[in-house]
Specification:
Blueprint: H1 2-23, E1 29-31, E2 38-41, E3 46-48, E4 58-65, E5 69-79, E6 91-95, E7 98-102, E8 108-110, E9 121-132, E10 136-143, E11 163-172
Parallel strand pairs: 1-4
Antiparallel strand pairs: 2-11, 3-4, 4-10, 5-9, 5-11, 6-7, 6-10, 8-9
């Protein structure tokens, strides 16, 4: 009888712990803006960076989608060279079952952007579009060799450090 009581109490504690875990506030939560756009800044992401093998560097956010639909995906890079971004590998983005993969190219250059500091320029690259069917919380993950720690950008003259990924923007497609 005593063993059954201990097992019962232990199972109740486990279920309470699971409930408490599911009710915890999401860390690193990003809310969709009133115009439907979603801004994901690498500085505010959960990041994994490996300077020896940067091809698997990852940034991840928890995004609260309040307006579903089709979104254009834009990457923003800080770069010294506005003609060639120096991404060694393609950039991969995952949102639930949606996956995009692209080699970033300079589609737009923005001078004097507040997103980057001198001597960098802001370069925007169109990655593609994806459809988010339902509202809710989504894990958004991006993998790129240009997800770098801030300290890596201090010495911008070193090889391979002339470009870094700054942010990802999802803008709603309006018909």
């Amino acid at each position: 009888m005593l063993c059954v009581g201990i097992i019962f109490l232990n199972s109740c504690n486990n279920s309470n712990n699971q409930t408490a875990d599911s009710n915890r506030p999401l860390l690193n939560k990003v809310l969709q803006q009133a115009d439907g756009s979603i801004s994901l800044h690498v500085k505010k992401a959960e990041c994994y960076s490996d300077m020896v093998n940067p091809s698997s560097n990852t940034a991840e956010w928890n995004v609260v989608v309040s307006k579903s639909g089709r979104f254009n995906v834009w990457l923003t890079s800080a770069t010294i060279d506005t003609t060639y971004l120096e991404y060694k590998n393609t950039v991969m983005l995952s949102v639930q079952d949606n996956h995009l993969e692209a080699q970033p190219a300079v589609d737009k250059v923005i001078k004097n952007s507040s997103d980057v500091n001198y001597p960098y320029f802001r370069a925007d690259s169109f990655m593609g579009s994806l459809y988010i069917q339902d509202t809710g919380v989504y894990a958004v993950q991006i993998i790129s060799d240009k997800i770098l720690p801030e300290a890596a950008m201090d010495n911008y003259t070193s090889a391979g450090e002339k470009t870094r990924l700054v942010s990802v923007f999802l803008t709603p497609v309006v018909r």
